Every structure is written in C-alpha cells, then in structure tokens.
C-alpha cells in the first residue's frame, strides 16, 4: 500500500487531517452572552440594552413584531453591525466585538438567511462538498487526502437533511423547502457550534414545515440553534424557550405558554398574531 493510500484509508482518520476541535469554552457558562447591548442608527435605538444568554446545545426561538430588532441582533452576533455599547461573548473565551465577520464565522457561528442561496447548477452533493471547502479550519493542502472523510461527512449531512435520495440531482430542481434544508446542510458541513436561522419556514408547505421542525429540533443538543420566526404555529411546535423582542429589548422570556399569556406580550404582538393564526 502506498503512503497516499494508507493516509486515505477510510477506517483511519489521522488527527492532523481532522478539523480542529472548536476552541469555544462553555465550561463556565453559556455559548452566547450579550449584555447591555445597544445600537443606534441615526439616533434611533434599534437595539436598546439587550441582554440575551443562549446555553450550549439550546434551541431558542426569537419572536417580536416587525422592527423589534431581531435582524439587527443577528447582525451584531455575526459581526456585521457593531454595537455602540455592551458586550457580546461566544463562550467565555471569545469577545465577538473584537473580531471581524470571517473570524466569527470560522469560530463556528453559521447564519442561514431567509432566502436560500444554493448553487442551482451543481448537484446537492457538490453543494455540500463546496461548503466543506469553505471550512478554513482544514488545511487546504490536505484536502486531496481527505476524500474519504469528506464523503462520510457529506453522507451524514445528507441523512440529517433528508436529501440522500436526491444527492445527484441539480439543486435547481429542488423544492423551496428542500433548498432551505440543503442550505442548512451546507452550514452543517462546517460543524458550527451556533446556528442562526432567519425565518426558516417562510413560503413552505405544511409538510415541509413539519420536516423543518424535526430537522431543527434534531440539531439542538449537537449545536445551539437560534431561530427567528414569525409563524407562531411553527414556533409553538419547536420552542422550548422563547424570547420576545420589542423595541430592541427583551420584553419576555419563557415557554411559549408563559410568554403568550404575558399581558405585555399580548398587547404588543401575540394577541394579534394568535387571532390571525386561529
Ligand atoms: N442600517 C439601518 N439604518 C437605519 N435603520 C435601521 C438599519 N437597520 C435596521 N434599522 C431599523 O432598526 C429597527 C430594527 O430593525 P430590524 O430589521 O432589526 O427589525 P426586525 O425585528 O428584524 O424586523 P422584521 O421582523 O421586520 O424583519 C427598525 O426600525 C429598522 O428600520
């Protein structure tokens, strides 16, 4: 057996080939910690003394009326927007306010925007392969030797997102829901510790929504997942803990039943939406 063959034997994975373990330190507390965060746009406080803590492995839903600050909050976590005040930590070791967007992403914070942006001409498999290539934690020079490991990882992710049967199909023929799952799969290829998911079920059929609920609840535990969503039925189906944002601050936090019976929440938001949903 040649040296190259021995290095690529499927049942052997060498430490130097495997992605480095995430350096995020959650031994002393949450995976995400935002304290007294504020950001103003032309004097308007879009985020106003926001305090938010996400535990390692938690699935959290963030709800709130239009303009509550949900997108801005995600932008702050990913480094797209810098707050004027406050602190944002990823585990106890990483001060996100001192890091740029690419470095935050490579720490293991993945963001799924509302619209899917898969490569339509490439197959489902190739989309996942490409996503793996974006993982900067893997030394590019070793990529050729990692074929076996990459394939195993793609197979795992295909299974997780339920697209194994469609792996050789071009992504362009997928339904809207399937494209959303593929994009989540592309993020999973990079082994994120925290996934930020913006309105995952907008435009989905009931069946696709159910499958998405299974997918997201299945991911929790393995990674932390923060879902921003307007669809109250969907939030109710997946949420353990819900945070209600209003005017850039946390208005209420707790189980869906707790927040939906909170009079201040009913007043600003849920009352109207529950009536619509009923
Ligand atoms: N770059 C910006 N410049 C000026 N104002 C902004 C900017 N980004 C956001 N805002 C304002 O900040 C507020 C919060 O916006 P944000 O998009 O975070 O709310 P949201 O909760 O995500 O709303 P939606 O549910 O409609 O997506 C809004 O009033 C918005 O107009």
UniProtKB/TrEMBL annotation:
Annotated SUPFAM superfamilies: P-loop containing nucleoside triphosphate hydrolases
Pfam entry (one): BCA_ABC_TP_C
UniProt domain ABC transporter: residue ranges: 32-272
Presence of the UniProt keyword Transport in the record: yes
Taxonomic superkingdom: Bacteria
Keyword annotations from UniProtKB, A to Z: ATP-binding, Nucleotide-binding, Transport
PROSITE patterns assigned: ABC_TRANSPORTER_2 (PS50893)
Statement: the UniProt record of this protein carries the keyword Cell cycle: no
Stated name of the protein: Urea ABC transporter ATP-binding protein UrtD
Organism encoding this protein: Vreelandella andesensis
Encoding gene, per UniProt annotation: urtD
């Amino acid at each position: 057996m040649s040296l190259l063959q021995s290095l690529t034997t499927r049942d052997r994975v060498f430490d130097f080939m495997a992605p480095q373990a995430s350096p995020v330190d959650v031994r002393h507390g949450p995976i995400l910690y935002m304290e007294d965060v504020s950001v103003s746009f032309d004097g308007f406080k879009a985020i106003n003394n926001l305090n938010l803590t996400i535990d390692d492995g938690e699935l959290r839903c963030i709800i709130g009326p239009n303009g509550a600050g949900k997108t801005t909050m995600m932008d702050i976590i990913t480094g797209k927007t810098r707050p004027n005040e406050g602190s944002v930590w990823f585990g106890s070791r990483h001060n996100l306010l001192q890091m740029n967007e690419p470095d935050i992403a490579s720490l293991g914070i993945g963001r799924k925007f509302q619209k899917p942006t898969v490569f339509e001409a490439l197959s489902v498999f190739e989309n996942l392969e490409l996503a793996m290539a974006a993982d900067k934690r893997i030394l590019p020079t070793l990529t050729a030797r990692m074929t076996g490991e990459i394939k195993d990882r793609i197979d795992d992710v295909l299974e997780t997102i339920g697209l194994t049967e469609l792996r050789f199909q071009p992504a362009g023929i997928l339904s809207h829901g399937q494209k959303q799952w593929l994009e989540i799969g592309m993020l999973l290829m990079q082994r994120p510790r925290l996934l930020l998911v913006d309105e995952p079920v907008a435009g989905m059929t009931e069946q696709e929504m159910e499958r998405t609920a299974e997918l997201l609840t299945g991911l929790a535990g393995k990674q932390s997942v923060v879902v921003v969503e307007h669809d109250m039925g969907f939030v109710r189906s997946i949420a353990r803990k819900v945070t209600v944002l209003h005017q850039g601050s946390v208005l209420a936090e707790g189980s869906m039943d707790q927040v939906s019976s909170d009079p201040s929440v009913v007043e600003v938001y849920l009352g109207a939406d529950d009536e619509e949903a009923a």
